[in-house]
Task: structure prediction
Amino acid sequence: MSAITASHLSKDYGDVRAVDDLSFTVESGTITAFLGPNGAGKTTTLRMILGLVTPTEGAAAIDGRAYTELEKPITKVGAVLEATAFHPALTARTHLRVLATAAGLGHARVGHVLDLVDLADAADRKVGHYSLGMRQRLALATALLGDPGVLILDEPANGLDPAGIHWLRGFLRAYAHEGGAVLVSTHVLTEIQQIADQVVIIARGALVRQATLTSGTNLEDLYLEATR
Amino acid sequence: MNGLIRAELLKARAGRTTWVLAAIAPLTCALWAVLPVFLLDLESAMPMEHRVENVYNMAQQAYVFTLVLGVLAMTGEYRHQTITWAFLVTPSRSRVVAAKLVASGLVGLAIAVVSALATLAAGAALLALRGHPMMTPQVPLVLLGAVASTTLYGLFGVALGALIRKQVVALVVALLWFMYGDYFLSSLLPDVGRWLPTGAARAVGGMHLESGALLPAWGGGLLFAAYVTTLVLAARLFTLRRDIT
Ligand SMILES: Nc1ncnc2c1ncn2[C@@H]1O[C@H](COP(=O)(O)OP(=O)(O)OP(=O)(O)O)[C@@H](O)[C@H]1O
Ligand SMILES: [Mg+2]
Result:
């Protein structure tokens, strides 16, 4: 069974067909780059997989079950979504504690994930005063809170400094090496090329290319050719 | 479910708004108690006992604070987009709202109790100062009723916020309705008013009116709970299932 399955996903927003009959799978132990032009439907697809957006047609599954039917979902799937937001008056630590409490997780994980994303020193400051990159680090920490085996990341490197990007690349590589499944949408091809095993490219909501990446592939050429 | 409720309480405690409103509520109630004490010097057809009880009934004025807190608790999730995290952790959206209802009920109860105590202190002191009777046998019930109705308003706020996700709109609707719409309707048409949310809440608090009788306290409580339930069901039907984008 695949870690992530999207089968015939479609989504209409009024007259706009944001996602159009999209199917793909992501296996455990691999990283899948999810690419496509602005407005191609990447964020919409990821939100459908996470049960936040209801598909017009089709379905998605994590380990064979719909996200909404998972027990303690954040212990199975970690998600970073575009424009992630936090309550500005809460500190990072409180934000994580709230979610850990809601999920029935121990607070020990809170300190752990804060260390992991190098946010421990700022953990007791209000998130409202955070920089873009700090917010992104907190989003990553939140995704890792439940120690999940699947990661769904929407432009996770957004705003990260070079050291942060370097860390994220190493982290994802190790994560997949240990059997985790990663689905990551991004526009930074040079970055993702270094770690992705598979690429799924969509345009105007529909699949235009699905390929396994080998060391010889030039991802940029592949992308530009597929989305032309 | 326990974890969810504790998480909600954690959020409520962490925000400054909760503490500010919780501090103003008892002060407001104490101030409201001044007016009916001075009105006692005027002639009235209402029995003295009822008029004294209405002094303590001012504990109900804390309603606006629990109502606003309830609306803020629910709509704040949409406003700050933290609803995404909430639904990722708990995909059952009804459970998220249920936890909010319980947590807001507990926060509201705390504010209601403090406000009732403040009203009791201020009312009793003022009545004694002006040489009026300080107590009637009904006063404890009046205060209990005020606590109940103030708490219920918090649930009403959550339910309204679940239905109207836009914070400003929900707040304006709630305040316009309770401070003006429902208030004037109840004053002008008491026969209609007793079936409206304000009338139901006043009945819970055992308020004595010059004109038109309210429902019995238990009836008012049931009616108010029915309004809350209706709002929650409407939210489930119309807004809760919407896409989170
Ligand atoms: N809530 C919404 N209401 C209406 N249309 C929407 C909504 N969300 C997305 N869309 C539309 O759906 C399409 C896909 O948007 P989506 O955000 O999924 O693209 P994307 O691939 O993530 O783009 P980007 O690379 O810019 O992040 C776009 O045409 C967008 O305008
Ligand atoms: Mg996007």
